[in-house]
Amino acid sequence: MDASPLLKVEDLVLYFRTTRGVVQAVDKVNLCLEDNHAIVIVGESGCGKSSLAKAILRLLPKNVQSYQGKVFLDQVDIMAMNDEEFRKNVRWQWLSMVPQAAMNSLNPVLTIGDQVTEPFILHTSASKAEALLQAKKMFDYVGIPESFLYRYTFELSGGMRQRSAIAMSLITMPKLIVLDEPTSALDVLTQANIFNMLKRLKQELAISFILITHDIATSSEIADSVAVMYAGQIVEINNATRFFIEPLHPYSRKLMDSVPRLHGDKEPDFIVGRPPSLVNLPTGCRFKDRCPDRFGKCSHEPPMTLAKDHLVKCWLYEV
Amino acid sequence: MNKSFRDILKYPSVIVGLLIIVALILVSIFTVIAIPYDEAIKLWRGNEADWYKNPKTAGPVWLNWFSREKLPETIIIDADEAGIEKTIKETQSGQIITMSIPIRFDFDVYAEDMTLYFQSNFEEKAPFIGLKWTFPDGEEIGIGNFSINRKFSYRLNQERKITNKLKGLVASQGLFTNLKEKENKPWKGDYTLTIEAITFDKTANVQAELIIYGQLSGWAGTDTLRRDLGIALLWGTPIALMFGLLAAVGTSLFQITIAGISTWFGGWVDTLLQRITEINLVLPFLPMLIMIGTFYSRSIFVILSAVILLSIFGQGVKTFRAAFLQIKEAPYIEAAKAYGASDISIIMRYMIPRVLPMLIPQFIVLIPSYVFLEASLAILGLGDPTLPTWGKVIQDAESNGALYQGWYYWVIEPSILLMLTGLAFSMVGYALDRVFNPRLREE
Amino acid sequence: MPLNVKNTPVSIAVSSAASLTKDNNSRTLLSVQDLRVWFELRKFGFGHAGFVHAVDGVSFDLHHGETIGLVGESGCGKTSLMKTILALYRPTGGKILFEGEDISRMDKKALKRYRPKIGYIQQDPYGAMAPFMNVQRILEEPMMDNHIKDRNERYERIRNSLEEVKVTPIEDFLQKFPHQLSGGQQQRIVIARSLLLRPSFIVADEPVSMLDASVRVEILRLLRSIQEKRHLAVIYVTHDLSTVRYFSRRIFVMYAGHIVEKALVSDLLNHPAHPYTQALLLATSEPDGANARVFKEIPPGEPPNLINPPAGCRFHPRCPKTIQNLCGNEMPPEFELGSEHKVKCWLYR
Fold this sequence. Notes:
heterotrimer; B: Jelly Rolls; five-stranded antiparallel β-sheet; 9 strands; 55% helix; 16% strand; C: alpha/beta; eight-stranded mixed β-sheet; disordered N terminus
């Protein structure tokens, strides 16, 4: 990891209060992201990855029980800022987000242009005309014809709507964009087109991405690094090339094995059991009940080990 | 379902509402058992024979708790009661029966009226009565000499002879005043009414009943026909609840079925039913009921039926249809169609149960609106004339000018009951809404 | 996009020249012949504004015990095709012969006999069950709607089905409600339900796409074992090519209302013929670190508007190999490339 990364997350914690108990969605997460770098956070539903995105962007609901840790953006701890400072200086200036199902959360009574320009106007007090110019530039980047700025949401296809949402996240030229399941509802060809677009944006605009997804296969399209999340914790971080050849953590391995492939003889595997509920977390290693390599020490929580330049949270790699 | 019960009880307003509703139901059950329907109707007709012992437009007795002055309640003394001195002296042809009735008066306000009711059975000649009144200081005055019939009422307040003797005050006032003093105010103390009855038969007897009509009577007061309002207030409860419940149930069930059929079949069925609904929504509901009441019948069953019929194609059809339209596209409905469920089966067993959680709060809030409707119709003069209902009480009060006359209790009591009913059901209904509807949104 | 599409397809009178042709091949369970499913567009509820040509000339045969994967992106017509086979929609034209009888001509009574013969597994396992019914009731409903009156028989069937989908112990699950089950368990119940009426074939619409990645394979394996054991024919509709190979013998690729390629699984994956199939395969990602440095070459654009589809081959506006003056003018017929490999593309004329 670089000496001065763009984003450094230290021991980030986010717990929610619910009627069922305390949901430990993000449990001391540590991450590092360099400039012009894309990290993919891979995990199944209920592992807390969406909550992680919200924690980084401080988009918190009312029932937060615990929100701590440090998040360094270009060495400035943004967790120490108050909400108003964060809103003005961080969100959409440094960081922006394309939330899950963004294409479905576009406002049906406003034109696309109105919506895409809004963050720009809010953060730069530009005029409507200037903002529209910027929006047109963004549409060029994401590959939508300019005329669509004047159309309404229902006139666009799913792929175009997702691109509009991405344009909206780009418009203030942030350094880092968080994308939460950007293509899960889209067709294969549209998906591939959007990833092409993201790759191009990364090249041309030197943006960094945090991509959150459950789909390991598509995650490889953009990943420079991969982080695997399980039950609120990061269990493995590695660079993409090595990860896709040989994941280390037993959970990562099982995830990789469960991906169906177009070619090859191996039939995909599945993981027995279910992820633990974030309310009732087991003691020790959270994966131990489903792990084929479980042994005695696993009843205690394993530390994050630096092994072969990976970071793994598993006793098997204890130094 | 159990979970929802526990959820509801989290709201304090619901507990209050539920308690009130339970109280109303208990009162209804008690009333129906304690005062059977036929008896209630008979009493409510207001025959003199049933009500002569009550004063007219007297307030409820508990008003004394709030009053600085102690208002008199009705005093009824039957001369045949134990403890009343009764002496009989034989005469040549008959008897002289002397009855001494002691009266204790310790109120701050005069009584309304005073009447002596006589009953006598005699053969030929009517008995002759002499009345004497003794003040607390021992002074006596004569207050009447007359002969009576088999049934005779001697209304003291209407006897000029008595009034003349009492400085112009009527009997119920003057007889309880120290006439020697300049100021006329009630004189607390023990009084005695002595009745001397001369009969001309050996077998004749005379029964007397003294009623000093108070300013207060009963726990609910009385009206101009001397009827105890408690009867109407008690009986109004089950009637109100029944009307509200039946109307709400009938209307809701029909509406939900119509909405279900309309949505499921779509096409011309949907178009037809929706147009009928829209036309019906525009029709003036209350004026039509008024017309029916005025020109046809005011029987409560006729009105109830008319209310339901006019409400079937009501707003609920539109509301439920909106809910059904969402459910119609649900995958499990499609699955049911695929495995061969019939249309009616789908509507009845898959769609309606899904909408019921939405129905229940609406339905509960609907009940008081029908209760108010019935009361409104009664106030407008279109209530069932024979039934003792809250609305009828208000209407009687209004037509007798109760508010002008200061008989506030006559209006306030039924109004409070109506308000409580409305409040209770609304609180429960809206709380249920909050409990049930998130569940709908969750899914 | 038009505002008002009627949700039931239009029935247009088919020319009387087509008589009921009985398929001579006794192995054929279902024979779809030139099927067309069009939806009418209404303007303001009254005016006619055209048709959405959702399925526009589809023919194929499904044999007993065979599994077919029907692959295509959204809007290609696979859902409409599937629902028409399920008799949820009525065809606008063409025939669907099931065991010799044409579904499109069946009256309500005949349809009642047809429906129990197909099982339906839906995409959304939670939505496929009535949320206010427990598992026992959910499973009893199809049998009661089909007049299986004997309670013991119903219970027997439920028991067998639940054992087959490995939802045991049965007593524990019968009283549960759908929201108390995991996604995988919910889908197993849906599968069990589809088997209760002893169908001869099953239509599975994206049965695993709403499940977690680690559970998908489990369910697909389960489906496969059930299919093998009961010798069921299955139409497996999906947009995910990579799962199809584990669960189908043949694959049909659908685009804009047509089946553009039919082939055995290995043939399709290794020698895709139609340019659209090739694009699909190229666009499907596999976990490989090198992907991040490579731009995929994919045809740009979007699937065509089905109200006024382009003349000729519907893929030609996006096709990298389009032939001038041919692809844009005439719809290609089906060309045979080898055993059971057919392509609708002028490249193979």
